[in-house]
Amino acid sequence: RIRMLDPSRSAMVAAMPRLVFRSLLLLLLLLVAGSAQAQKRGDRSLITRTDIEEAGGGLTTALELVQRLRPNWLRPPMGRNAKSGMLDGINNGDPAPSEPIVYIDEMRQPNVEILRNVRTPKVVEIKYLDQNRAIQMLGPGHESGAILVTTADKR
Predict the structure, then answer these.
(1) What's the gap between Cα 26 and its chain centre?
(2) DSSP code per residue over 71-112
(3) H or E stretch covering 124
(4) Could you tell me which residues come within 8 angstroms of residue 51 by beta carbon, excluding any fewer than 6 positions away?
(5) Are 124 and 155 in contact (CB under 8 A)?
(6) Kind and range of the H or E element at 143?
């Protein structure tokens, strides 16, 4: 007995590889696009010009940007017996033990308060280095990390 294939079923079977390929391609494109968006939003160690523009007006200094967009950068690292809060109230030019060291255009600054002098329109990007990365890249004395500001003046 010879079995005849239904023509509509035969066309469907022939189209299966194409359908599977298209589905996999679509899934791959969605994953790549989603990953790029997540990476853009997910980099918590960076404030870009785009982040600054998306934050809207009202933020006039680099310190305000950090306080609003990445307040964790100004908190003492976990697991240390550091004073709470950003500043210790003593402003003798040395950073408080619990605040990160600030660099503006690769020049070390006395303390975080200096970010009040950097106007938002001049900021290209602000990057945070955690304790390990800061010590590895910049040397000892960066137990609370480092904040690296790049301004339009440097470029």
Answers:
(1) 28
(2) GGGGSPPTTS-PPSSS--S--SSSPPTTS-EEEETTEE-S-G
(3) strand 123-129
(4) 69
(5) yes
(6) none
Entry pTM: 0.65
In whole angstroms, what is the distance from residue 41 CA to residue 51 CA?
9
- Which tens digits make up the pLDDT trace of 17-60? 777 778 877 777 777 766 555 445 568 899 999 999 998 878 99
Q: Which residues of 50-63 are buried (b: 16+ CB within 10 A; e: fewer)?
A: ebbeeeeeebebbb
Q: How many whole angstroms separate alpha carbon 66 and alpha carbon 72? A: 9
β-pair type (101-104, 46-48): unpaired
Contacts of 76 (CB under 8 A, 6+ apart): 82, 83, 84, 98, 144
User: Which helix H or strand E contains 129, and what residues bound it?
Assistant: strand 123-129
Token representation of residue 17: 């590889």
Token pair belonging to 27: 């899934």
Spatial separation of the C-alpha atoms in residues 150 and 102, rounded to whole Å: 11
